[in-house]
Amino acid sequence: MTKTFTVGWLYPDLMNIYGDRGNILTLLKRAEWRGFEARLVELGRGATKQMDEVDIFFFGGGQDREQALVYEDLLEFKQPPLELAVGNGAMVLAVCGGYQLLGHYYQTAEGEKFPGIGMIDVRTEAGKKRFIGDVVIDTDIETLSPKTLVGFENHSGRTYLGPKARPLGKARLGYGNNGSDGMEGCLQGTVLGTYLHGSLLPKNPHLADYLIRNSLIRRGVDELSPLDDSVELAAHERILSRAQHH
Amino acid sequence: MIRKTAAVWAGKATGALSRISGRGGGTTLPGDIARAIDPRILTKLSQDLTHGSIVITGTNGKTTTARMVTWLLEGAGHKVVSNRAGANLIFGATAAALNKAGPDGRLRADWGVFEIDEASLPKAVEEIKPKATLVLNLFRDQLDRYGELESIAKKIESALSALPSEQSTAILNADDPRVAEIGLGLTKAPLWYGLDDTSVAARELPHAADARTCPKCGASLNFEAVYVGHDGVYECPNHDFKRPTPSITASNIELDGFDSFSADIDKTRVEVPLGGLYNTYNVLAAFAAARTLGLEPAYIAERLKNFRAAFGRQERLEFRGRHLNLVLSKNPAGFNETVRTAVELAKGTCFVIGLNDRKADGTDVSWIWDVDFEHLKDKAKVVVPAGNRAHDMAVRLKYAEVPAQPPETDPGSALDSLIRATNEGDTAHLLCTYTAMLDLRAELVRRGWAKPYWET
User: Fold this and answer.
1) What contacts B227, CB < 8 A, 6 or more positions away?
2) Which tens digits make up the pLDDT trace of B363-419?
3) Domains of chain A with bracketed CATH
4) Average pLDDT of B324-329?
5) Residue A222: is its pLDDT beyond 70?
6) Whether the Cβ atoms of residue A198 and residue A216 lie closer than 8 Å to each other
7) Residue A91: partners with Cβ closer than 8 Å, 6 or more residues away
8) Backbone torsions φ then ψ of B453, nearest 5 degrees
9) Phi, psi at A238, each rounded to 5°
10) What is the nearest CA distance from A28 to chain B, expressed in angstroms?
């Protein structure tokens, strides 16, 4: 019997500003190429079914107007089922705005605080300068090979990690979480938050497989068959070599 | 007056030097120099125009539309000053005005036709004080440069609101929800234009669509028809907001690949040698602008029969027996349309897809994941990923399951790869971002297959 693999995209119509579809496509295709029946569930505004079937949730970034619309819906309809699914071992990849909304709060330049859903131990404050450009991070996550992640950042938020969250890695190039402690992203349980887009997963196939593998452990899958990643890793390498010239 | 004359002389000298030294067409640097000497130079030169100016902005179609308006005015006997070579910041507009100024520092022309980058529009409108401002569309583009669509829309709205309403007309695309939002906030009613032919509409929004919520209540808009990107016929489910009724429309549209299209505009049959539905929008916009500036429908239709697109926007070249079709494709909405036109209408099978990440292209290339390259699957025989981000394009094509040649970052190698993979007589579509197009074109110039762009 074919095994299914399900990706749940939170607010695909509103939170998709930075080519987030690349992350979705990478997860789906890499599962499909391994013989899984890969499915996408779009989790738009309003009451949503099927959240208990999702293996990996993706939560991207949006523009201010859209992010405000999402915020209320997230609290009303998504938070309880999302927490339940994560408690059952589903993975979450949150990028940019999604990353911020999963934390404790976002504080504007005027000092106003917008609470997030507190799923990860991070807080974000508005900053003046916008951090824009290529990013390379060195990660110490076990089982990841190569030990680098590459992407592109474009954010003015400064995110700080609490003791329960660990950084995804150290920025070799770029600003990362806040531009001051040199760290980028966070990993807390099965939730991974980051400012990297570009999209993130297409040029980091090892991270895509990390998410897929960990989300399927609970379904009794412990090995993923290898794929030919030469095209993806060539693009990854190219960013690394450009970083050396910065 | 002396300051103005000095600024004109200094600017003109810079332009001449820049061309002689072979550093390019001298399309923006002269503006830079002249503005340093006299910051009000563009306002002063604009006041010399006997009829006035039109300013054209929008994410896609600025160059083609501005060139068309210029073509129409020139054909009617007017002397026109315009910033031609895609130099669409304030410096480019200034340089263009300088170029047509005489030794006494006076600009001798009837009309100014300026294409202006969305983010530069407020400043341009303030300095030029145009008789008409044309806003074509607002698509997602180069977010890294300007911040997001929302803030650009607000800037444009405030620039238009500041114009004296009795002397200036806003010409707006009713089919674009973001542009419509701008127009509904203006005190003087704009001239709305839009398509009126659902037979050429797509059934659903492409993945690149980006203005889908009601500005009043936040509900997702319902689309009855989708033409290009998020441009179509839309309405808020709570009836708070809907597409304004256009007073000038294109209907009975017939598309013929990249070659031509025809349509009924303002009770006149118009046939233009430009392909793709996005060009139907450009022609409709130019038509609406020309009507506002006082030209007659019959004349416009006749003159447009012989219009030629700007360099690289859509250009045909011969290269070692291959027919090349160069089409600028710089963002998701533009790329989706050129891919759709190449595959569905022109039956294209050979492609070079050029992606650069220089400043003029946008340094963030994540938008390629919003383009539906899946349309090339099972249709394209040869695809060469090119440009300094060719490797990103190769990954994109892999995940669209489109077989491709190895990525070629060097323009010469990309052309060689195309030659190896194709036969004489084949047609290849070169869909490229701005500087990727310049690079490929420069290589074709170097090999003797094309003319330098400032001579076109």
Assistant:
1) B175, B195, B200, B201, B202, B277, B281
2) 899 999 999 999 999 999 999 999 999 999 999 999 999 999 999 999 999 999 999
3) 4-244 (3.40.50.880)
4) 91
5) yes
6) no
7) A55, A56, A57, A190, A191, A192, A211, A214, A215
8) -65, -30
9) -65, -40
10) 10
Phi/psi zone of residue A19: left (φ > 0), alpha (ψ -120 to 50 degrees), beta?
left
Rounded to an integer, the average pLDDT of B300-313 is 85
Q: How far apart are the C-alpha atoms of A196 and A133, rounded to whole Å?
A: 10
Cβ atoms < 10 Å from Cβ of A87: 10
Q: Which member of A18, A154, A235 has the closest CB to residue B395? A: A235
- What is the CATH T-level fold of the domain B314-455, as seen in this structure? Protein-Tyrosine Phosphatase; Chain A (3.90.190)
ipTM: 0.96
Contacts of B150 in chain A (CB under 8 A): 63-65
Confidence of residue B144 (pLDDT cuts 50, 70, 90): very low
| pLDDT, mean of residues A45-50 | 86
pLDDT band per the 50, 70, 90 thresholds, residue B127: very high
A10: its two tokens: 């939170």
The beta-carbon neighbor of B398 closest among A44, A199, A231 is: A231
Cis, peptide link before residue B161, omega less than 30° from 0:
no
Each domain of chain B, given as residue ranges in start order, spans 2-304, 314-455
- pLDDT digits over A115-135, tens only? 899 999 999 999 999 899 999
- The alpha carbon dihedral of B238, B240, B246, B249 has a sign of negative
Give the CATH number of domain B2-304; options: 3.30.390.50, 3.40.1190.10, 3.90.1640.30, 3.60.140.10.
Answer: 3.40.1190.10
Q: Which of A100, A198, A43, A54 is nearest to B357 (CA)?
A: A198
Q: What are phi and psi of A52, to 5 degrees?
A: -75, -15
Going by C-alpha positions, the residue among A219, A232, A226, A233 that lies closest to residue A37 is A219
Look at phi and psi of residue A118 and say left if phi exceeds 0, alpha if psi is from -120 to 50, else beta.
Answer: left
* pTM score of the predicted model: 0.86
Task: List residues of A whose CB lies inside 8 A of any B CB.
Answer: 13-14, 16-22, 25-26, 29, 44-45, 63-66, 69, 130, 132-133, 152, 154, 197-199, 202-203, 231-232, 234-235, 238
Strands (E), chain A: 4-10, 37-43, 56-59, 91-95, 105-107, 113-115, 122-138, 148-161, 169-173, 183-184, 186-188, 191-194
Mark yes or no for CB contact B365/A198 under 8 Å: yes
Residues of chain A positioned with their CB less than 8 A from the CB of B363? 132-133, 152
Residue of A43, A95, A199 to mutate, interface with B, max B Cβ within 10 Å:
A199
Which residues of A fall within a CB distance of 8 Å from B218? 65, 69
Is beta strand A105-107 parallel, antiparallel or unpaired with respect to B132-135? Answer: unpaired
Verify whether the Cβ–Cβ distance A132 to B394 is below 8 Å.
no
Which among A21, A26, A29 has CB closest to B370? Answer: A21
Q: Say which of B140, B207, B218 has its CB closest to residue A69.
A: B218
Dump pLDDT digits (tens) for A135-146: 999 998 988 999
A163: distance to nearest CA of chain B, Å?
32
Kindly list the catalytic residues of A: 96, 197
- A150-181 pLDDT tens trace: 999 999 899 999 999 999 999 999 999 999 99
Token representation of residue A9: 């995209």
Residue A198, phi then psi, degrees to nearest 5: 140, -15
Residues of chain B in contact with residue A21, where contact means CB-CB under 8 angstroms, are 207, 369-370
